[in-house]
Amino acid sequence: MRKFITFSILALFVFACSDDSTTTNNGSADLGSDLSLDAGSDNGVDVPDTPADMVDDTGGNPDASMDAGDDAGMDMAEDTGPDMTAMACTKEPNAGSPPATTCLHGAADWLAWQWVVDEEMTVSEIQMHTDEGSVALFADDNTRPGTTLFEGLLSDADADGWRTLTIDPPITITAGTYWLGENVGVCSTVENGTEFAYFTSNSSSGPWSGPFMAHPFTARIAGSCP
Predict the structure, then answer these.
(1) Which pLDDT score is estimated for 84?
(2) Are residues 6 and 60 part of one domain?
(3) Same-domain pairing of 112 and 217
(4) How far is residue 22's CA from residue 18's CA, in Å, rounded to a whole number?
(5) Which of 65, 160, 188, 200 might form a disulfide with 128, Cβ 3.0–4.6 angstroms?
(6) 214 in the same domain as 112
(7) pTM of whole model > 0.90?
(8) Which domain holds residue 23?
């Protein structure tokens, strides 16, 4: 009887201990799994969010900075380019010699004087020392006046006897040979200087007769040069 009671007490003690350890293990497992899962899932979501936000923010800013750079670059090129590459210039054959009035057209209505340009130029004005009439600029056609690039009437004379033809819009020409035509009474010449070849015609569209060599021609061709 005493042995049975002792054995029962021991059995209850063992059962109680095993039940407590099971509860403890379950509690630690629940707590551990809850903490590890909760902490892991929270951390796993929050941590990627931050780099993603940073990438999105920084990814947009470079685009904006590139756009701003491109616009600024274009504006600078457009604003500064023309001013830096072109300047006012004037070509004047036989410059410095006093004007002469000894050359008259005679029977021909038009005289076209050879003019050689040494660089690209945008022509906005042609001045001649002559009386009233018309002036034209011709392209070269095998060393004689060719296509009419511009034709118009001269203005009234200034105090020094120069008359102006304004070309609007200006004409850009390259280096080479051209012809300056005049339909006036008195040729635009000077007293001393180089004589240039010229052709004569009764029309600005030809046909042209020549070439002839006489009288030093002059004119002022104004515009802009590179």
Answers:
(1) 52
(2) yes
(3) yes
(4) 6
(5) 188
(6) yes
(7) no
(8) 1-85
Tokens of 90: 């004037």
Residue after which a domain boundary falls, among 62, 85, 108: 85
CATH number of 170's domain: 2.60.120
| Segment holding 198, helix H or strand E | strand 197-201
Q: How far is CA 62 from the centre of its chain?
A: 25
The pLDDT, as a whole number, for residue 85 is: 67
Instruction: Retrieve residue 28's tokens.
Output: 């630690």
Look at the chain and report how many structural domains it folds into: 2
What is d(CA 206, CA 179) in angstroms, rounded to the nearest whole number?
A: 13
Q: What DSSP assignment string belongs to 143-160?
A: SSEEEEEEEEE-----TT
Closest CA to 179 of 126, 113, 89: 113
Q: Which tokens belong to 208?
A: 């042209």
For 52, what's the count of Cα atoms within 13 Å in the CB-facing half-sphere? Answer: 6
The answer on 182 and 73 residing in a single domain is: no
The pLDDT value given to residue 107: 81
Give residue 5's pLDDT: 42
Q: Write down which residue in 68, 85, 102 finishes a domain.
A: 85
Instruction: Say if residues 108 and 203 touch (Cβ distance below 8 Å).
Output: no
Rounded-to-integer distance, Cα 213 and Cα 116, Å: 16
Mean pLDDT by 10 residues, the chain (226 residues): 44 44 42 40 45 46 46 46 71 93 87 96 96 96 96 95 95 97 94 95 96 94 95
| C-alpha dist (Å) from residue 78 to 39, 120, 123 | 59, 21, 22
